Amino acid sequence: MTGSKQNLVEKILYHVEKPGRYVGGEHNQIVKDWETVTTKWCLIFPDIYDIGQTNLGLSMLYQILNADDNILAERSFAPWVDMEDELRKNEIALFSLESKRPLSDFDILGFTLPYESIYTNCLNILDLANIPMLSSQRTESDPLVIGGGQACFNPEPIADFFDAFVIGEGEEVILEISAAFRTWKQAKLSRIDLFTALAKIDGVYVPSLYSVNYNPDGTIIDITPNHQGVPEKVTKRIVSVLPSHPTKFLVPNVEIVHDRMSVEIMRGCTRGCRFCHAGMVNRPVRQRNVSDIIPVIQEAVDATGYDEVGLLSLSSSDHTQILDLTRQVYDCFHDQKLAFSLPSLRIESFSLDLMDELKELKPGGGFTLAPEAATERMRAVINKPLDDEDFYNTVTQIFENGWRSLKLYYMIGLPTETMEDVDAILQAGIKVQQIGKRLIGKSVKIHLGIATLIPKPHTPFQWLPVERPEPIQEKLDFLKTGTRKAGIKMSYNVPDSTLLESWLSRGDRRLNRVIFHAWQNGAKFDAWGERDNLQIWRNAFSEADIDPDFYSYRQRDLEEILPWDHIDIGVNKQFLKRDYNWSLQGRTRVDCRETCFMCGILDTFGEDRPSDGFGYWGCP
Amino acid sequence: MNDTPIRYRMKYSKTGNLRFIGHLDTQVMFERALRRTRLPLRYTQGFNKRIRLNLASALPLGFISSTEMLDFWLNEPVEEQFILQMLENALPAEIHVLEVNQTDSSLPSLQGSLTSSEYEITLPAYIESELFQQKIERLLAQPDVPVTRRNKTIDYKPLILEYELRNDSSDNSVVYFKLSSTPTGNARPDTILELLGIDPADCVIERTRLNFSTVEN
Question: By CA distance, what is A8's nearest residue in B?
Fold first, then answer.
């Protein structure tokens, strides 16, 4: 950035809310000499700094890239609307936090895409950086634009805006992308040469190298490579053993959401809940050993000064050393005044001993459980079986151990759901409240969190329609009335945001036009739910002449080619179909550590499975 | 644990991008930096234990400073130069630790004994020193200078203790202010600039000195 631009930026920072979001300079920030590296990445989290900075995936990639002497990685985030106005008014291109250089100066822009409602922000960021928005409009002098993250296991709705996607885990593949980019740049070849080189890397999907044909009814005839040497399917990338954990986290200088450090103790889940996207796309299970976790926590605390640590996984209590972990965490850190959180505890793998340990780790905090459904029948449909007696016993123990507030997560809009199932949620809340009142007294706080099912790609529910807003609203109203009467707190997803997420997550390539029109008409920060964006989106669908109901309310045929069928998560479609049918029959599957249901993970990745006892994934 | 904690006073500067970090965030930054030093920190008692830490005065967002001060407490004595080095390593580069001194525990708090603050303001090139002189003289010629903040009106005139125009060698003029900083009469230099019709965002405002009733600095 030139001196006068720099002065201008400093001036506008006086006039925006929380300017610390835009200046970097955090402890542990890495600033490299721009001239001495060959490949320059800017890692972009397309939401505001407050939301994105502590994202663990971003921290991991930042460390891995910067550990390479030939590479630098800086960061950028979506500016909040006040800063965007100032940038546009003063014609300042969006810049990175470290060197304050415009994004167009970088070689590669790596967007983190953890959820779909962030897509319009990606377009806005490219626009604020004066970079052509469509891959087809960009040239050799523009940065390579890459996306990766949980949302882009269906990359099709945003395929036109990105040059390539990383499908799956990025720890290894980003260095391979860097190397391919470096070779290409030195050879001074054209963009198509870069694309075909990238498409040869396992786990990299280059959407422009594939063509999609549609039937008159809008369904897909086929998705096929349009270039030689491009694989028909892109198989996701995994690391067979979790690599060493980052510890030198950047410490934000301004207060942000989730202002604590996170340590990933396990990746993947063996439970197989049928609604759960994360449980399907993140297979297999890989654990970190307690003897590795403890030093990571110590190093990270020393490097950051944080006093709160989140131990992350999809299902903490399924870690085979969980009790040992909580004991050692207590022994090593209780005199360092650290608070720990251990989210995602499964009721059935949750022991009294573990509860004792947790009480020590975070006194005074609330407790959270996620039964997801309240009747035995419905729990069989979603494959999250749970004995009512076990549930109420656990609840009793939670109150007996002194917790005074309990949050319970449930879902509505599940297949075959009746009002009886919905009423059961309310009744469960009331019964839990009664147990709490008996053991704790009137001060007990019960909170119901109600989510609406969005049948996600790559799950056994992927063929199902989303339930329409009218019955969803009816169910929500019923629960709202009931919880208000009982003095139970309730939070829920508004039907509008459910609908938007269903379009963006279940769409095909035609959605690109819709997203573009929505952005043009002012949609951004769709995840915030504060702005009334749904009408903008409906208008965008009509401008693109596309029926949104096609993506949300249509029961898809089991034989239909789905927009994401060429993206292979290692779990095969046959397995998902069988599981879908079992769901309709109310048939459950046990945890797949007990019996292998041949989901396909071992067929795809089995050769890489480590042979030692602990690292042997969850698979029998 | 030693039951009589030892008080240390640190003098530091805050410059560059860190001027966009506000007072409460700065306090958290110091708490985390102190934790990173692994010094034998004294915590407050009670349910939510926090590091015992006391900043002299809130530095408004956007100001730089060559002279901020804070007190913190340790459970046992540590050599001052060692503390200074540990803190310097643990803090972001744009905070520079100038001094660390063990301080008498019985002295009143920094906040409670602050009397006045001194500032140097680099004016934008379009405000020449003569123009500034006219503006400030016109302002102070009035019988009082009412400023309303949070529904409370105070007279700024007696709070402006001293001012002086200093000609910088560059194109920009520098103006010096000494302003009252007591709980009942606290004046901000950016407010004075606004009264004069100058956008504070166009100026560099540096706090150069804090004056206390009990401290020699």
Answer: B202
- pLDDT at site A1: 64
Pairwise CB contact (< 8 Å): B92 & A307: no
Closest residue on chain B to A337 (Cα): B49
Domains along chain A with CATH numbers: 3-235 (3.40.50.280), 260-363+590-620 (3.30.750.210), 364-510+546-587 (3.30.750.200)
CA A600, A602, A608: angle at the middle one, nearest 5?
140
**B164-201 confidence digits (pLDDT tens):** 998 766 778 999 999 999 988 999 999 999 999 999 99
Nearest to B43 among A19, A26, A337 (CB): A337
Pairing of strands B95-103, B6-14: antiparallel
Report the SS3 class of residue B7: strand
In DSSP terms, A209 is beta-bridged to: none
Q: Within its chain, how far is the Cα of B68 from the centroid?
A: 5
The question of ipTM being above 0.95 is answered as no
Instruction: Report residues of chain A scoring pLDDT below 50.
Output: none
Q: What's the domain range around B192? A: 112-212
B84 shares a domain with B10: yes
* Number of Cβ atoms within 10 Å of the Cβ of A559: 6
pLDDT in the model for residue B217: 47
Contact A273, A267 (CB under 8 A): no
Looking at the fold, whether B118 and B206 belong to one and the same domain comes out as yes
Shared domain for B175 and B89, answered yes or no, is no
pLDDT tens figures, B81-112: 999 999 999 999 899 999 999 999 999 999 99
Chain B residues with a Cβ under 8 Å from any Cβ in chain A: 16-18, 20-22, 24-25, 28-29, 31-36, 38, 43, 47, 49, 61-62, 90-94, 200-202
Q: How many domains does chain B have?
A: 2
Question: With contacts defined as CB-CB under 8 Å, which chain A residues touch B32?
Answer: 27, 251, 304-307
Same domain, B69 and B38: yes
Give the residue from B1, B26, B32 with the most A CB atoms within 10 Å of its CB, the best one to mutate: B32
Mean pLDDT on B105-128: 93
Q: What is the DSSP letter of B41?
A: B
